[in-house]
Specification:
- It is a single chain.
- The protein is an alpha+beta fold.
- It has one domain: Immunoglobulin-like (Sandwich).
- Helix content is about 20%, strand content about 35%.
- The protein contains two helices and seven strands.
- The strands form two sheets. Strands 3, 4, 5 and 7 form a four-stranded antiparallel sheet that branches.
- It is globular and about 40 Å long.
Length: about 140
């Protein structure tokens, strides 16, 4: 039985390495999306107030839109569409905080930092549902 020598493996290994590099480069490409030309959805957009304290983060991600609805009869559901403004894949950490009609925080197990991975120029939606009908408003926070 004849075993391959290291020199005979080099061309195959080089080809494999080149394939892996091309595959990795393909993973870092932008995301293409397709949707209806005439949307059938009628979102209830929320006018938001943006408080920017990290200009680097603001230059990397942006909130495209925020909309809300009511589910299960009386629970507020909020959805935000966020976009990666860079060409590279980035991780964004976010959390929603709930507020009652008196401006007091409503404790929720959903109030933990969550991470999403966005490809270059990708847009993704994040959402949450209030755990109490007392929650009438929200604050959405981001960190990198």
């Amino acid at each position: 039985m004849k075993f391959p020598t290291p020199s005979s493996l080099r061309p195959a290994g080089a080809g494999l390495l080149a394939s892996l590099i091309l595959l990795a480069a393909g993973c870092a490409t932008n995301v293409n999306t397709y949707e209806r030309a005439e949307s059938q959805a009628t979102p209830n957009y929320v006018a938001d107030k943006r408080v920017i304290t990290d200009n680097t983060l603001a230059g990397t991600f942006r909130v495209v839109a925020i909309n809300q609805t009511t589910v299960s009869g009386n629970l507020l559901k909020v959805q935000a569409t966020v976009e990666n403004l860079r060409n590279k894949t980035r991780t964004l950490n976010y959390k929603f905080e709930w507020v009652d009609q008196d401006g007091m925080a409503v404790a929720s197990p959903n109030e933990t930092w969550k991470a999403i991975l966005l490809q270059g120029r990708e847009t993704q939606t994040i959402s949450t549902v209030a755990v109490s009908p007392r929650a009438v408003d929200f604050v959405l926070k981001f960190r990198e």
